[in-house]
Amino acid sequence: MLTVHVAEASPELAVLVDGARVAAVGPYEEVAAADPRARVRRWPGVLTPGLLNPYGPELLEHAYHPDPREAERLGTEPVLGERARSLLRADATALGASARRGVGRMLAHGTVAIAGEPRARPVQDAVRRAGLALAPRPHAPEGPASLWPSPLVLLPGPVVGGPARFAVFAVTDLAALARSGPSTCVATVIGGRLVHRRA
Predict the structure, then answer these.
(1) In 46, 63, 134, 185, which residue has its Cα 20 to 30 A from 121's Cα atom?
(2) What is the pLDDT along the chain (199 residues), one digit of tens a residue?
(3) Are 25 and 157 in contact, with CB atoms under 8 Å apart?
(4) Overall pTM > 0.70
(5) What is the rounded CA–CA span in Å between residue 190 and residue 187?
(6) Four-way CATH pick for 2-50+156-197: 3.30.70.3270, 2.30.40.10, 1.10.287.1080, 2.40.50.180
(7) Is the peptide bond between 151 and the residue preceding it cis, with omega within 30 degrees of 0?
(8) Which segments of 22-180 does DSSP mark as H helices, in order?
(9) Distance (Å, whole) CA 59 – CA 61
């Protein structure tokens, strides 16, 4: 189904999605006129290319993402270090379940790609199923692994014929995104699919 995505604070960057690909990019009026049959999704904030998280393997293979039922005991943030290693060794399914929850949290932060290549099969499966792109990483990132890396790394903008991969943040502009961070994400689209939408 053809869909135009447009955000209130960035009408100059609307995206027409046809399946998994971008069919048109530009000002809303032009993109909407490209195919009047397309449905329109209007979002608050700004539409961006989406974020690259430089801590892919660290967050998905070496951190433990608690299940909501574990929040009282473990909290809601990723668990790192020896405690994470212990939790991930708890049973054969722990790594895959943690990775799926971690990927879900990345999507909720507007992440559409990770740097580095996971080696563990359950993590590779979680990344592949979500459609997260993999980017090369020439050197290890500095600082602790975080769902909110600083500075934020925006990917190149969507192009006609390229993958329909972007995110929308409830901010007024990119400077506000840098200040407020990716927890302001309202929608993440990968492969033309809405993989995260803030309730």
Answers:
(1) 185
(2) 899 999 999 999 999 999 999 999 999 999 999 899 999 999 999 999 999 999 888 899 999 999 999 999 999 999 999 999 999 998 889 999 999 999 999 999 999 999 988 999 999 999 999 999 999 876 666 666 777 777 788 999 999 999 999 999 999 999 999 999 999 999 999 999 999 999 7
(3) yes
(4) yes
(5) 10
(6) 2.30.40.10
(7) yes
(8) 28-34, 56-61, 71-74, 81-88, 94-107, 121-130, 174-180
(9) 6
What residue ranges do the domains of the chain occupy? 2-50+156-197, 51-135
Q: Could you write out the three-class secondary structure of 15-49?
A: EEEECCEEEEEECHHHHHHHCCCCEEEEECCEEEC
CA dihedral sign of residues 91, 96, 98, 101: negative
CA distances from 114 to 11, 36, 67, 135, 157 (A): 27, 35, 22, 6, 16
Token pair belonging to 104: 């879900």
